[in-house]
Amino acid sequence: MQHRRDTTFVTLPIVALAAAGFGVVLASLAIGAREVDTIALERQRATIEQAIDQFGLSLARELRVQSVWNEGYEKVHAEDLPWLHKYYGTYLNQLLGYDRIYVLSSDDKPVYGFDAQNPGVRSDYAKIAPGLSDLVEAMRVPKPKLPADNILNTEISVGQGYKVHHRAVADVRAIDGRPMTVVISTIVPDHAPPDANEPRPYLLVAIENLDKAFTQQLGTNFGFRDLQWISGDVPTGYDTELVRAANDGIVGTLAWRKDRPGLDFMLRAAPGLMLALLPIALLTYLLIVWGKRQLKRILESEQDATRAARTDALTDLPNRVALRERLGLMLDAARAKSSTVAVVSVDLNHFKGINDAFGHAIGDSVLKACARRLEGLVGDDCLVVRPDGDSFAVLAPGLDNTGVAQLASKVIEELIEPFDVDGTRVFVSASVGYALGLRDGDTGDELMRRAELAVGKAKEEADSVAIAFAPDMDAEVTYRLMLETALRAAVADEAIEVVYQPLMDASGKRVLAVEALARWTDPDFGAISPDIFIPLAEETGLIQAIGGLVLRRAVTDCKAWPDVSVAVNVSASQIHHGDVVDVVRKALAESRTPAHKLEIEITESVLLTDEKRANEQMRGLQGLGVRVALDDFGTGYSSLQYLRRFGFDKLKIDRSFIDGAGDPMGSSVVLASIIKLGQDLDLTITAEGVETEEQRRWLQAAGCHQLQGFLFSRPLTATEMTAFIASHRKNRAVAS
């Protein structure tokens, strides 16, 4: 019984497919036949239109003999009616078959008329004139409204260097209810110039009935069976073409017996196609059998691929793709039940150090162990995910504020326990942040983003406490993004200002140098502290542009201060991700500033990042003749060894040591040692942050060479600094 059902299951699709294939073939034949018939009909209609147009133009060319004729030109102007009747009326009717002939004067009045049906009537042109007005107008105006295909223009040489312009127009019109071809031609001489006083040429109007031999001949020439003009209902089995004039007026309807080449072909081809379907049906059956086997393999492969695309290969946890899908479904369910979904985001701290210390194999094992611990921490209704790298996430439905806080704390406690991996004890710490949907976000991406913001805040706190998302975190991110956008615009517009703070001699009376400092005031945010925008510039890569701008302005401004050098700070990013030596070389060359007037200040953080690169750049700067100073001395980790290893020209003592200058219980002993060390190494010693006269006197006595701080001046603009330097020179001159 089961076998029969399986056979039926296989047979029915085959029969259905064969029937569908047969139906598709027949439908294709029918559609193809219909298209062929439609194309054939359109071609027949186009042939009729073209044949009628060409017939009219051939008549226009034929009349050129009668309308380009010196004697005809003279007789027409003399309005010699007997002559006109003989050579225009009778001649054109009997020899060329025209039914009506008219001659119009220059003001379009009929001077002669001929009608083969009414030979005794002199002229009935007034009856048909309205229907021909556009054709007559086309003979008179320079730019007719008729299609160009209806008009013939010919330049005719008449001797003595004269040429006359001959124009003819042809179109079909309905006259007295019958289709007619109308030709209108200007009457001009053929071997003498026309009368210069003639306002407009006379016109020859020739009309031929299309309902005579023309229709029969058209059908014979182009294979139209029983071609005829009809009025009223269309005969059964006929196709039609509605003939229109150039002015869109209806002339009449031509009908002919239908010709269906597509249908004829289909009827002839059908038997052969029926026979061809038999082997096709057999082949289809064999293909279906083979296809079912392949389909099963493909489905299994797709399932494996789908599972792999949503699974982290290392930990076998769901990955970021699965996270987005599952979180979306959980949020939909929570929305329907008015419940919650908690997202706990977990980042392992300093995990790179574990890989560097123990190797990636141990690191991978730790990640697997973290995954297993997190899975053991939550219930079956929760989901543990590894989005990427050293981060995890836990999705937990139905928790309130207390519940998600407890879960986040358990995650920290669980991961802080040491891991024993292949005999190696490894300690891990984690930063954990969490957000609660639908309160903190009603979409998966928004909820994950806010949980990760909380993780970032937890990393800043660094006290192993889980942090809940708070709205002000979003505000901080938004503010930072707005600030970054404003900074980019300021850098592009070169709106970063440069101010200068003087470096005085130990007496505080002589300006030895100035330090260039970047300042930024935004129209919306106001004055932004360098402690804020300089780190932001380093993070975003804008520090290169800002550093270059400050350097160029500094070396240009210092040309106004003889015997005063200028110091410019260089960040670690400028050293390690750019070529400071090349930037300085170009700035000095463009400003034509001597290299000895420039001093480059670097901090110990530059040396910590890449000691070799920093040494190369420093030696290159000194090779240009630029002095190099070690800034913020005493705040790093290896100050003494850097002083021994690198050939600095100056040592700037950090302001944190200056506060205790002169205080025997404070840091004056350390400060004195630093000054003595710099003197022994033959370095210029500069003290930053000098704010009191007591500090100045102590530093002078201790042997400091240069002093800098608010005791002497706040940062000044270039113009203000010029005045400051001038005033101190004047004071010195008066004192001496």
* Biggest sheet character: 8 strands, mixed, barrel
Output the CATH class name of the largest domain. Answer: Alpha Beta
CATH architecture designation of the largest domain: Alpha-Beta Barrel
Coarse shape: elongated
Poorly predicted regions: 2-7
Classification by helices and strands: alpha/beta
Q: Report how far the terminal alpha carbons are from each other.
A: 124 Å
Query: How large a portion of the residues is in β-strands, by DSSP E?
Result: 15-25%
Mean pLDDT comes to 82
CATH H-level superfamily title of the largest domain: EAL domain
Alpha carbon gyration radius: 51 Å
Task: Give the helix tally.
Answer: 22
Kindly state the number of beta strands.
25
CATH topology of the largest domain: TIM Barrel
Number of domains: 4
Which percent range fits the helix content? 40-55%
Describe the structure.
By secondary structure, this protein is of the alpha/beta class. It has four domains: 101 residues, no CATH class; 143 residues, Beta-Lactamase (2-Layer Sandwich), CATH 3.30.450; 150 residues, Alpha-Beta Plaits; 256 residues, EAL domain (TIM Barrel, Alpha-Beta Barrel). It is 51% helix and 21% strand. The strands form five sheets. The chain has an eight-stranded mixed β-barrel with strand order 17-18-20-21-22-23-24-25, surrounded by five helices. Strands 2-1-6-5-4-3 form a six-stranded antiparallel beta sheet, with helices on both faces. The protein has a five-stranded mixed beta sheet with strand order 11-12-10-15-16, with helices on both faces. A hairpin with a 2-residue loop joins β3 and β4.
